[in-house]
Design brief:
This protein has about 220 residues and is an alpha/beta fold. About 45% of the residues lie in helices and about 15% in strands. The protein has 9 helices and 6 strands; from the N terminus they run E-H-H-H-H-H-E-H-E-H-E-H-E-E-H. The chain has a 6-stranded parallel beta sheet, sandwiched between helices. The longest helix is centred in the middle third of the chain and has 22 residues.
Length: about 220
């Protein structure tokens, strides 16, 4: 491996953090608060990764814009309340996540970052709860078009000065992989997230975090 800098970007929900229960519970609270039937679990998980307005447009497309806005605010409120009550247990990290982040962060040529559909507030809270101090670039929904637009990846590369051929996007949904592909970077799908990994068309699939460091060494 040359001494060129390498940028490793992670999605958060469904990739680093097991937030399935947190997301479905907050979504149920939002729909109940608006007096609407809750979408199915499969429907909710299918939109994870999109920004909230787009997610609500998918789940409640038949509702007028003002109702969709109420759903967005209801979700934010329910999610924040649950997060404050549960702390780090609200969205636990997947097995091996903390260890692989520490391992990769110890490699001088590697720069770590996140590209997530979470809000800045939600991302900061999760990073604080799990003491994840390793990310040099943090891209979130507040400052970008929704995935799969490549804006998050492009900004992360611009901030770090890393080339597309030296960047990889790791995620669990089609939105993550399509975003990475649109930005011209390598893509790695994890098989424990919200979308079936084999259907995503990623360059690589990993079945555990233990496979990530060797894969990156072989890739670079």
């Amino acid at each position: 491996m040359s001494d060129a800098l390498r940028l490793i970007l992670f999605d958060v929900d469904g990739t680093l953090a097991d937030s399935q229960g947190a997301i479905t519970s907050a979504m149920a609270a939002a729909f109940a608060g608006a007096g609407l039937p809750t979408p199915s679990r499969a429907e909710i998980l299918s939109i994870v990764g999109l920004s909230l307005p787009l997610a609500m447009a998918e789940l409640a497309g038949e509702q007028p814009a003002d109702v969709q806005a109420v759903l967005v605010e209801g979700y934010k409120s329910a999610y924040k309340s649950a997060r404050l009550a549960a702390g780090a247990g609200h969205s636990p990290l997947y097995p091996g996540a903390a260890e692989v982040l520490a391992e990769l962060n110890a490699v001088p040529e590697y720069l770590l970052g996140v590209a997530t559909g979470k809000s800045q507030r939600g991302l900061d809270a999760l990073i604080e709860a799990h003491e994840l101090r390793c990310f040099v670039t943090r891209q979130c929904a507040d400052h970008h078009p929704s995935k799969p637009h490549p804006s998050m990846v492009l900004r992360a590369m611009a901030e770090t000065g890393v080339r597309p051929e030296d960047t990889v996007m790791i995620g669990d949904t089609s939105f993550d992989i399509d975003m990475g592909r649109a930005a011209g970077v390598r893509t790695i799908a994890v098989d424990w997230g919200f979308h079936p990994a084999e259907r995503l068309g990623a360059d690589h699939i990993i079945k555990s975090f233990g496979e990530l460091a060797p894969l990156l060494r072989n890739t670079w």
